[in-house]
Amino acid sequence: MWRGARNRPGENAPVGDEPSQEPRKRAVGRPRRIEADQIVAVARRILQEEGVEAVSMRRVAKEVGATPMALYHHVRDKDELLMLTLSGMAASIPRPVLPDDPRERIVTIALHTYTGISRFSWIVDVLSLGDLTDRSALWIPEQIIGAAVECGLSPTEAVHVYRTIWYVVYGALVFHRAEERRAAAPDRRPFMSSLVTEEDAGEFPHLAVVAGRWEEITGGYDIEGQLRGVVDGLLPTGGRTASPDA
């Protein structure tokens, strides 16, 4: 007889036996509700404490008390989650006082961007994904593009100026991040002096002169001075009239 079947009334039912009953199913509780802000906050904390490598959808899900699949209702993948961690970061850094002179304004904003991001090494790694998701940072390209237009460039040319400035700033940040990693391994050999020696002077005459002092020279890199040189090279002089924008 199948488990759970019942005898008909009067048919061989043992005296005193109660009809068998199906056991009640245990009510399943609702999964814990999670919010996108909670997911982003946990991912940001992991980034700050352990770096990009420590962030995974499984790790974040575990810390918010959910399943990895539940996270995909809020973010497409790990890359999108990492980019969302940038949201609001620009607003946490006070804006500088901007000069009236458009050239000085661009230099001031570029330096502000460099010094602000360099305080958060994990941001450099996240920015390598390429997209800008922090609305509170939009004042930076807005001001740089506007200043370039004031100097006589078309809007299209001004966008190119902004991108070039950003490439310089981001490149400096990447090298700054690399220097931090190298500083954590003081026993390492300086790479340039190990690659180029006096014997290589015939092939690399200029590098051979500076290879032995490469660490000292690069350590004294003046980001402000270099940015001024880049800005001077990008912007027209003498009140040039903006070219027609395509």
UniProtKB/TrEMBL annotation:
SUPFAM superfamilies from the UniProt entry: Homeodomain-like, Tetracyclin repressor-like, C-terminal domain
InterPro entries: Homeodomain-like_sf, HTH-type_TetR-like_transc_reg, HTH_TetR, Repressor_TetR_C, Tet_transcr_reg_TetR-rel_C_sf
Keyword vocabulary terms for this entry: DNA-binding, Transcription, Transcription regulation
DNA-binding region: 56-75
Sequence intervals crossing the membrane: none
Domain of life of the source: Bacteria
Region (Disordered) residue spans: 1-30
Ranges for domain HTH tetR-type: 33-93
Identification of the protein by name: AcrR family transcriptional regulator
Biological source species: Streptomyces pseudovenezuelae
